Each structure stands twice: as structure tokens, then as C-alpha cells.
Amino acid sequence: MTHARRATSGPQQTALPGETPPLLSTCEAGQILGISERSVRRAIKEGRLRAIRSGAAYRLHPLDVERFGTGRTTVVNTPGLAELLVRPMASRFIGRAAELKQILALLADPGERLLTLTGPGGIGKTRLALEAAGMMHHHLRDGGRVVFLERTHDPALVMVAIAEAMGLADSPGRSAPQNLRHALRNADLLLVLDNFEHVLPAATEIAGLLTDAPGVRILATSRAPLRLSAERVVPLQPMALAHGQVTRETLLASDAVALFLDRAEHQGPLPPVDEPAARAIAEICARVDGLPLGIELAAAATRLFTVHELLAQLSPSLPLLADAPRDAPPRHAALRDAIAWSYDLLAPDERRLFRQLAVFAGGFSFAEVATLAARGNAPMSPERVRLALATLLDHSLVRRDDTPGALSRYTMLETIREFGLEHLAAAGELPAARAAHAAALRAMVQDLLPVGSIYGRSTPLVRLAAEMGNLRAALAWLQQEGNPADFVELVAALGLTWFPYRANQEGAQWLASALAKAALASPLQHARLLIGSGGICFAQGRYADIPALLEQAERLLACAESPPLELAIVGTLRGATFTAEGDQAQAEQALLHARAVAGQIPDATLRAGMTGRVLGNLALTARRQGRLEAARALIDAALQHYAAGGFDLAMAQVQLTEGQVHDASGDLPRALRCWHEGLATLGEQGDPRLVADTFTLAACACAGCADWSSALVLFGVADGMRQREHTARSWREGAREMAGRDAAEQALGAVRAQHLLATGRAMTLREALAHLGQAAQRKQPTLSARQYEILALLAGGQTDREIGEQLFLSRRTVSWHIRTILDFFGVGTRGEAVVRAREDGVLPA
After folding, report:
1. Which CATH number covers residue 553?
2. What is the pLDDT of residues 33-64, one digit of tens each?
3. What are the angstrom distances between the C-alpha of 543 and each of 540, 578, 639, 730?
4. How many structural domains is the chain composed of?
5. Is the domain of 60 the same as that of 189?
6. pLDDT tens readout for residues 380-398
7. What are the residues facing 116 on neighbouring strands?
8. Is 152 helix (H, G, I), strand (E, B) or coil?
9. CB 155, CB 203: distance < 8 Å
10. pTM
11. Pick from 16, 114, 581, 828: CA 20 to 30 A from residue 457's CA?
């Protein structure tokens, strides 16, 4: 067997410590071995002695010569990595560019000698390891070897398998580990150990090998780490998928779709991939969690189905994906087999816990796992749960969720969860596990009650956001198979949660289903269902439907001993409805009554939070009435109530009202800063109707500062949010908005204006907040040249119509410019603007 090594020429020198020793000629090798040069050449030709061909001559490494001479090592003509990797692989390597770069950098680092690629079955560990090894092969003096451990079931035989792959003959008086360590003591090679997870006890032998052979690097693939001190674990993630509003080109450029198309083309020519087909392929890749094995199995099915037909048949995904190539490893015969390989390595109680975890549709915390595992016929202690969960993590059956949060959470890939559900049902444990899951969620929601506390604080909402997948699964099971009374209880407990959670349509459906079973509800539960429905009506702008819901809720609350918290929420929602409809007098009356009721709440924290909410709504009503000083006082009072109770979301909403007060006072830059700070605090937890209205106000303020580009972008943000979230506008200054849009379009031109609006509509909330933050930092510019013209004409006593005729502007555009002039000087009338302009020297006295 011949290694592809770099030839070395020039005078022979003694190697310094750490340097590569000089190569030997066949004559020098013969002198060392005490045999003729012809015998050396014969050994080379017969494959018994390794050498490098340099022209017509051969060069040999001293280590190879020593091994040949002592008879300790016999190199047999067995294919190894040195031969495997110089040949092209059967399939093209696609994607994983970042991971490949990381692995190569680590392998090139002398301090990183043991790398373990981890991840679930089918994620592409072996293929990536072979690709990395192929690229490293020519940079190592002795190349490398690959050892496939799939059929090595006894950990005691791992070193034997490595020795066989190295082509090492048995030596009398030495064990396989000893023989291997001795043979590799001066080697410079890469050893790839594939599929190590089922021989983990052999890791201690690997540690000894690394100690005795300092030039050996090991790249292992395993579903579980080896747990050695020298180990660097490189966990692999599913292949990259395209998300959000993406084009056909973006979809085709994603690693997952590119892999699908490449493997599908092996089955025969594909029809042209238009945008619907690209989206179907992307969804197929998402259905199999971006696992390369799942993608390849799905691509193989294109010889039978179009991608649209395949997508329709892919749920559940595991049964369909069962047609691997004949030369695939047995564990990859189907996606189910890849998962079963890991499942079979678990202890019985670890398997039971794995099955139970499959009921969690949206991830889980350790506390939830411990609660679930403590139920049933074979309860597990928290300590045993911790150890079993660690094993599931090690075997890549469970993954830790890296999303920032107060609690650690864990998830399963959907394909793995489907496998777990199948085994849960086969074991007859599914109904009990579903019931325990739903009971745990009901208890969790009850702990986060009452609803008044939930709506004002981010912490409970973050927790509920993390549990939305589980809540949906529990609600669906309770509705279809569980106890109907438990279903009603859970929907009622969620109360107004659907309102701030951007799930208005979904919440409306659950509430309607629960209201249809209202006979099973207590008066308080029934009232909470009605209050939640009223909140969703408010978010959707269906103000006419709210009074009847609130009146019925009040009657039910009277039967429930009139709990003040729920009554205060009813009054606040009634007042907010009047405010949105423009009846500020009725709004003030309803809110003052709600304030009195809120003062009767026994719990001090809830009393402060609910009172603050009422005061915040009263401040908005005062601003709509033009009583700006009263609005400022109410805002200060609301913030005082919120501050002590940690009501961060409620404080952010009051900041939005404060921005409106500054806007009405003409302090537009300060208004923009308030809106940016408030929206940034609310983040994804903000009511989409309120957030969209605030972006509209911010756009108007930017137009008032002649920041036309920001104005149009923010108008587009509001438009896009209302369209995506299906929300109505509650802000009633449409004339100001239209005038701002018209003025910005006239200033920048129609084409540029449409581009900026489209840019805003496509922005994410994070991008929109960043843009608003930049706009809030800009200083208010001076008046534009056109506005100075209009100011001079105002000083001459001309009307809007006369100014428009003279400057060839519409009356609405003239009115907008005049409003901007008033805002610039911080005054309320045209006469005051002219007086201020003369005082400031803008106009001649």
C-alpha cells in the first residue's frame, strides 16, 4: 500500500526535537536493515515496506524502516483512510461550510487532539468527518485511517479493530492496545473512529493511546461524548433552512434544499423548480428537522412522487422515509432505524423517560420532567431523572434549548418526538402521559394567575410563551379525548393571555369552544371566558361586540361574590373601548369606577398593578381630551404604582402614552424617544394593535421633523404589522397620517416613497425598533425651504387655499406643512407661529 506523502530531497540531516526526520534512500535503508538495496525495493513492490516514489527513486521514513526491520509491524494491503480519502466519495458533499472550517482549524491545533462530532442519528456526522479527514490527509506525514465501529459490539475489541484498520499484525507477548500504542508512538496521522456511542467504555483506552502516541489526532463520531479530559465536543445542528419571507433564490441557496435537489437528481431529471416547488422542498426539509439522512431519504422518493405529492404524504414523516440505498449502513436503513439505534442503547428507565418526554410539543424544563416522571406506576426520583436526562442529552435524543431565559429548557427534534410517541402508544402509556401532561400545564397556568398580574409583567408571559406549543397540544387533547371540564378550566385560566400574545384568532377559537361548554364552568370561569373574548374583540377592533360580553361577565361575577380584580378588568376594558371609539367622557366615567374597584383588591401587589393600569388608561383619555398637564400627572401616578411591583410591561405601555403627550405638546424628538424605549421593552409581548398604532404615530412625528425617509419606513412598518397580525387601527388621527404620507412622497418622489414603504413592510420587529431608535437620536432639523415660504405667506394673512394656489400644492399638503411649522415652534395657532418666528428672527419684525 502506498501513501501519498510529500517527497523530500536534499542533503540528509538529523531531525531536531519536534521536527520531521529526514527521509532515507533505499541504499541507506538497506544499510540500516542489513539487507541489499534490491531486497528493500522488492519489499516496497510487494507492499511490505511503505515508501514514497520520487522520480525513479524511492524515499522511506525511518519509522517505517524500523518497523520493517524489527518485525513488530507488518503492513498488509488492507484499504484504509489513506486510500479511501484520495478517491472521490460516491456523493457530493454539500453544505456544512462553517462546521468544516471549525473542524479543520481544531485539527490543525496541536493542543486539540481529540475531537468528537456529536448529534442524533442521521445528522451527517460520518460524512462530515470523512470530508474533514480527506482535506487533512495530505497535511499529515502518515495520512490516516478510518475505523468503522458499527459492527464492533464489545468495547474490549475496539483497540483490536483499530489495529486491524492500521494493518498491524499480532505480536507475541503484547496485547492489542500495547501493540497499537507501540506502533503509533512516533506516528503523525489522523485516526477517524466512526460510531463510537455503543462502545463508550473503550474511551479509557483511547485516552491511553493519546498519551503514548503524541502525534496522533483522533476525530470521533458519536451520539454521545466520550467524556475524556482531552476531548473537544463539536455538536452538529440540523442543516440550515430558509425562514420567513424568502425568495425562490434564497430557498434554493439553503444547504438543506441544495442537498435535496442534488440527491433527487440522482433519481432522474427533475422538472424546473419554480417558487411553489422550492417552497414545498423547503417544507419537506423542515418536516424532517433538517436531518441530512431524512432529506436524502425524502429526495429518493421523488422517483415516485412530485415534491408536492411527497409533502402531502410526509406526515407522519417516519413511515415514508424507509427506503435507503442498499449500501447504506443498517442503522440508516430508515430514519426510524437511525433513532432506534440510540433508543436501544438506553437503560429501561431511560427509555421510559424518553417515551414520556415525547408528549411535550414545545420543549420542557427539568421541573416539568420531574413532575411528569413522578407520576404513574414506576415513579422516578428527581436525582434519577437528572441522570436519565443527562444520558438522553449525551445520546442526542434530547437537546438543550439555547434561547435566553431564566429557566433551562430542553427540546426534541420532531422526528425523534414522533418515534417516542409511537413507542409510548405501543407501551400503552400514551393516555396516562397525555393526562399527566395536561394536568401539569393546568397547574402551571394556575400558578401564574391572576390574569391582572400576568398582563403587567414580562416574566409570566415569557414562561407562557415558552409553553405555547405544550398548551396547544394539551388543549387539543383535552378537547378531543380528555375531560371537557378540564378543557374549560384551562381556557378560562388563560383568560386574557391570548390578547397580548399575538394569537387573537387562535385565542378566539379556543374561547368559543370553551364557551360552547360553559355549562361545565363555574361563574368565575365563565366570566373569565367572556372577559378574554372581549379583549380579543378589542384587539380586532370589534368594539360593538364588547358591551354585551362585559355585561354578562358582570352578572356572573356578582354570582361569584364580585371579585374586585376581575371587576376592575371589566371596567378598564369598558373604558378603553370608549376611548377607542372617541367617547372620552364615558371612558373617564368607566375608568374612575374601575379605579375605585381596584382599590378593593386585597393583595397589595395586584392592587398596585391594577390601579396603575387604570391610571394609565385615564392618562390616555386625558391626552385625547387635550388635558396634557392632567395626563402627565396621571402618568407619574401610574408609574409610581407599577415601580414597586415589577410591572415592566405595564410601565412600558405608560411610556407609550407619555410619548403621545409629548407629541401633542410639540416635543417630537422626546416623543420618539419615549416610543422607542416603550416598544423596546415590550418587544414581542406587545399588543400588535398598540404597537402598530405607535409606529404610525412615530412615522407622523418623523414627518413633522422633515425626516421623510424614516417617516415612510415607519409607515410601512405599521402597514406590514397590521396586515400580518390582522389587527384594526384604533388611532383616530388618520388625516394627520395621510398628510404626512403625502408630504413625504412629495419631498422624495413617488418611486422612492414606494420603495421605503416596501422596506418598512418587510422589516422584522427588531429591525423596525432599530430604525426607530436611529430616528429618535436625530436632532430636529430646521424648517424646509418650502415651509419657510409657507411661513412667510402665513405672515401675509393668506389662507390654505390661497397658499396652495400660489405654490401649486394641494390644500391637504399645505395643512400638513402648517402643522409641521406649529410643531417646530411649539405653538397651537398660526398667529402664534408668526409671532414666535418674528421673535426668533426667522421672519422680519
Report:
1. 1.25.40.10
2. 767 788 788 888 877 788 888 777 888 887 77
3. 8, 9, 28, 10
4. 6
5. no
6. 899 999 999 999 988 888 9
7. 220, 233
8. coil
9. no
10. 0.66
11. 581
